[in-house]
Amino acid sequence: MANFSNRVTRLFGIDYPIVQAGMIWASGWKLASAVSNAGGLGMIGSGSMYPDVLREHIRKCKKATNLPFGVNVPLLYPDIDKHIQVVMEEEVKIVFTSAGNPKTWTGVLKEKGIKVVHVVSSSKFALKAQDAGCDAVVAEGFEAGGHNGREETTSMVLIPAVTQAVKIPVIAAGGFATGRQMLAAMVMGAEGVQMGSRFVASEEASSHEAFKNRVINSQEGETQLTMKQLTPVRLLRNKFFQEVQAAEWRGASAEEIKGLLGRARARKGMFEGDLEEGELEIGQVSAILDSILPAGEIVKKVWQEFEEGMLNPVKKI
């Protein structure tokens, strides 16, 4: 596997422009270090962690790899100031922020020499991230799992729009799990990809085995964007999803939807493996996944597919 050089690999000091998304209940230190050791950029997802748990994961990740890794900080969660403090105290070098205003913390982090990337769902917010001083943006299309944009702009439209709008590097997200998909993103102007669902279905992901198996057995059309009154999220259809959908159809208030969510539903589904009562966040690309693999093997496979696609861009049948 030959190394690859572009603005994304140079920004992070990695071999391949493959970023593992920071996903709640799935991306702890084991997954992050495995991806980094394979030449990609591993990411600790802080959204499901208390500050002291985040500190523990950062320290364990440092022991497991001497290569760059990052921390994803969703800005909508409580105790964000404490998470930011932990990140700075532990001298993390790369931070991805999402679900909030990049101006809030980018300057503070950059003063500490930290590289900052913000996740966006539109050209408008990409420009705001660039103006806030971010080093790069993740352009996340409608296909993505987890928190998503209300505009429902697909990656096929969003990526070229964002790359035309900003001068900083763009990392594509939302619907990427293979090397050929990564090549398509590069053709549209991105300089790397961020993959979440593909790494959920990895051996090192901290999500429950039952959830991983549900992901690789899912079919097209089994996910849907919901909870637009709060923060839009893509979910696998199950009993909990049906409850939320029924509430939305009858015109439930945002408070009522919050009430449905307020029972640690994401933990119940993704971490504890309750496939009916839990919240199962995953992207549309889960429909083409069929195996749970070691994270290092995923990085290797994606890169090999990318290189094969470069040599033979038109797949012959």
Describe it for me?
- This protein has 317 residues and is of the alpha/beta class.
- It folds into 2 domains: 7-207 and 286-308, Alpha-Beta Barrel (TIM Barrel); 219-285, no CATH class.
- The protein is 41% helix and 15% strand.
- It has helices at 7-12, 29-37, 51-64, 80-89, 106-111, 123-131, 155-165, 179-187, 197-200, 209-216, 239-249, 254-261, 265-271, 295-311, and strands at residues 18-20, 42-45, 69-74, 94-98, 115-120, 136-140, 146-147, 170-173, 192-195, 223-226, 233-236.
- The protein has an 8-stranded parallel β-sheet.
- The protein starts with 6 loop residues before the first helix and ends in a 6-residue tail after the last helix.
Q: Could you name the ranges where pLDDT drops below 50 across 5 or more consecutive residues?
A: none
Shape: globular
Domain count: the total is 2
**What's the total number of strands?**
11
Distance between the termini: 26 Å
Query: Largest beta sheet, briefly?
Result: 8 strands, parallel
Structural class: alpha/beta
- Helix-residue proportion: 40-55%
What proportion of the residues form beta strands (DSSP E)?
5-15%
CATH superfamily of the largest domain: Aldolase class I
Question: Looking at CATH, which topology of the largest domain would you report?
Answer: TIM Barrel
Question: Which CATH architecture of the largest domain is right?
Answer: Alpha-Beta Barrel
The largest beta-sheet arranges its strands as 1-9-8-6-5-4-3-2
Annotation field: number of helices: 14
Summarize model confidence as the mean pLDDT: 92
